[in-house]
Amino acid sequence: MSRSIDLAVIPGDGIGQEVVAEGLKVLSAVLPQDVKLETKEYDFGARRYHATGETLTDADLDALKGHDAILLGAIGDPSVPSGVLERGFLLRLRFAFDHHVNLRPSKLLPGVATPLAGEPSIDFVVVREGTEGPYTGNGGTIRKGTPHEVATEVSVNTAFGVERVVRDAFARAQARPRKKLALIHKNNVLTFAGHLWTDVFNRVAEEFPEVTTEYMHVDAATIYLVTQPERFDVIVTDNLFGDIVTDLAAAVSGGIGVAASGNINPSGEFPSMFEPVHGSAPDIAGQGKADPTATVLSVALLLRHLGYEAEAARIDEAVSADLADRTGKPARSTSQIGDALAVRVAG
Amino acid sequence: MSRSIDLAVIPGDGIGQEVVAEGLKVLSAVLPQDVKLETKEYDFGARRYHATGETLTDADLDALKGHDAILLGAIGDPSVPSGVLERGFLLRLRFAFDHHVNLRPSKLLPGVATPLAGEPSIDFVVVREGTEGPYTGNGGTIRKGTPHEVATEVSVNTAFGVERVVRDAFARAQARPRKKLALIHKNNVLTFAGHLWTDVFNRVAEEFPEVTTEYMHVDAATIYLVTQPERFDVIVTDNLFGDIVTDLAAAVSGGIGVAASGNINPSGEFPSMFEPVHGSAPDIAGQGKADPTATVLSVALLLRHLGYEAEAARIDEAVSADLADRTGKPARSTSQIGDALAVRVAG
Ligand SMILES: CC(C)[C@H](C(=O)O)[C@@H](O)C(=O)O
Ligand SMILES: CC(C)[C@H](C(=O)O)[C@@H](O)C(=O)O
């Protein structure tokens, strides 16, 4: 049987180039001989925006659509006004390809530093809704720039959108040993959206009697993430709360240098996209200082999504071993870390 | 000269009763003989809601309006559906009395445990907008309970509302030794509200050339709060982001047992309200287990607001001394802590 992966690669801005190169290095090293890997690189981000004014065109989407998956480095540069690339590229892609499951695992691996005292045991995954909530770009501004300006943002939540992501989270919780699922929202203040989320959550819970559930307000959740992170197994939450808690989760479980994410379209109608949680870090770009681990772990998520479970597990193990080995050693360059991981997954 | 404080006292639900009693004990002990303290207790919260169906009536607001300030314990009980008391009492009061400066100091005092490793130095204050943003209750639901339900939440932001709170925060930063102010928002995604906040912030900054400013996205802010909390001096942010970052800030700087807050109407047109950040904690209510420190520190904020700076400082010092003294000692009851603080402020 001959197998193949047709990958769209978007290095993007800043350190994106460097970390994606290492991600691909590890991907090539881990794949069995019989799997044909094809990659096509796309130039998106600040350079393209400055050259053409474009962020992501319909033709781009058509081209990307044909791939099995997308690997993204990072998008964003201080030379571009805030929001242009985020809304024009990253969010446009997530929405166009209906990436409604934004998957962000947090695991504190042995040997990895955490800002938390003690030795917390952290191993949970956040299922962040990716196509609704305050991220839809609904809203507007009147009397802009005047003392009477009014600016609104509309969070849009649908039973359809909430139910599919809640269902995905329950299925993930059901498949894990601890079988726990926490819903994070702010249903005591955002009562319209909050009650929709809570009602749907409680209804779907009846289909998963083995899953232990809890509800927590987003403010309280930030407290638990630093005082009792071991409490969490699977978390499901809306787009904005998910953005916030996953950065905090990354911070407590080893930093955004090791935080991976998948923007998943579970039906497979569109390619899913995998990217490190960190940004383009223009301050250290081009210096070989970026840690490619988050990208390599995103490659593992990508492989798992495409059905290459054994290869994904080999990457996870290689990363664990590499991180455990770092203590007391001098810092390595981006490509040195990539090389080391490539050797480990191949061996 | 004869002075007086006419205080509305709202013990509320759960531990609210217990902690407010200690707050008043310390308040009486710290006030000079010549200050006449009058208190009137109001019964709001779950009990009243169950008995009458009322949360806060126009007549209640009229009565409260006559006081110099309000001391609140906590509102909330599991027997009341989520949102009823929050929207019907707490937020109604904040909005009716135009409490647009929600002030939440975070200071890690010597001897106080933090979940963070190392010995971070934490001393900042969050100025949270209190009358706009996603808290306005704008939004709604259609096709409720059906597979086609759509629920919206509208964040409303006005130049008027943003500018007054930003200006307040700049003035506070200007008055502090480090003179630093950080704006927290998510202007790369919530571009309508985000740009209003950023534009107003940058414009007001020109009037405060001595204040060093920075902007940070709310997700990144949660990272800094656990990895570099010493970075912050004054933070200004919107109502929802402020809710989230102040709980996290409380968690890293000693827990919500010591987190105080003021809901301030700076013009004095309406009485300001002071309350601990923690909730009603029904699980430990009535057992004398609650730490009244957050309420006592809220009393200090109240005194400072009314111009009793020396008395406020005495409470702050008493709390510092009490906390520094706790290590290795057996836990005390709510009233024992209140007694100890009352002795310290009197002495
Ligand atoms: C860059 C930004 C649009 C994005 C988000 O808010 O989703 C990022 O913070 C993330 O978490 O992937
Ligand atoms: C109880 C709730 C309405 C409130 C808020 O969200 O403002 C609380 O969390 C707070 O921070 O004072």
From TrEMBL, chains A, B:
Residue(s) at site: Important for catalysis: 135, 186
Cofactor(s), by name: Mg(2+); Mn(2+)
Pathway: Amino-acid biosynthesis; L-leucine biosynthesis; L-leucine from 3-methyl-2-oxobutanoate: step 3/4
SUPFAM superfamilies associated with the record: Isocitrate/Isopropylmalate dehydrogenase-like (SSF53659)
EC number annotated for this UniProt entry: 1.1.1.85
Cofactor detail note: Binds 1 Mg(2+) or Mn(2+) ion per subunit.
Protein name according to UniProt: 3-isopropylmalate dehydrogenase
Source species of the chain: Streptomyces nigra
Entries under Gene3D superfamilies matching the protein: Isopropylmalate Dehydrogenase
Keywords: Amino-acid biosynthesis, Branched-chain amino acid biosynthesis, Cytoplasm, Leucine biosynthesis, Magnesium, Manganese, Metal-binding, NAD, Oxidoreductase
Residues where NAD(+) binds: 279-291
